[in-house]
């Protein structure tokens, strides 16, 4: 599917700092997705790719470009349309949402969003991509607001989860 290829290319271009190309390819991905015939069945290997994944990947591209307000908007769209069974994706994109909020200096929402990741994970440890994002969130929060009450509360809460991770 052209849309998936274009959005993945946009993310890679954003990572390498190619802003114009990344934005153009994201627009191409959105346009291509809109032209897809919903009645035509997708190949099994594309079953995961839907509007929520398109905007989730777009959010990652925007984040790499430093457009954290756009990233946050796309993440809200992603989370609103994400299929119920995609629990790991929900945690992953919610962790990205917390980072987008933090990078806009919205500490209260960022900490609440990050706490929701811990709550949703329950007793399961946060490993892999989501665990790394939560580590990044903690480091960035400490750097941005080292003395803030919310930062201290987050650090205490997050430290309580670290015993589960090896």
Description:
This is Tetratricopeptide repeat protein. The chain is an all-alpha fold. Helices cover 71% and strands 0% of the residues. The chain has 2 domains: 1-83, no CATH class; 105-166, no CATH class. α1 (2-15) packs parallel to α3 (51-64) and α3 packs antiparallel against α4.
Quickly list its features.
166 residues; 2 domains; 8 helices
- Give the domain tally: 2
Q: Helicity level, as a percent range?
A: over 70%
Report, as a whole number of angstroms, the end-to-end distance.
Answer: 38 Å
The helix-and-strand class reads mainly alpha
The major β-sheet equals: none
Overall average pLDDT = 89
Run of helices and strands: HHHHHHHH
* Tally of DSSP helical segments: 8
Low-confidence stretches: none
Shape: globular
Q: In percent, how much strand structure appears in the residues?
A: under 5%
- The total beta strand count reads 0
Radius of gyration: 17 Å
Protein name: Tetratricopeptide repeat protein
Organism: Streptomyces paludis
What's the layout of helices and strands?
Blueprint: H1 2-15, H2 19-34, H3 51-64, H4 68-81, H5 87-103, H6 107-121, H7 128-144, H8 149-159
Protein name: Tetratricopeptide repeat protein
Organism: Streptomyces paludis
Short description:
This is Tetratricopeptide repeat protein. It comes from Streptomyces paludis. The protein has 166 residues and is mostly helical.
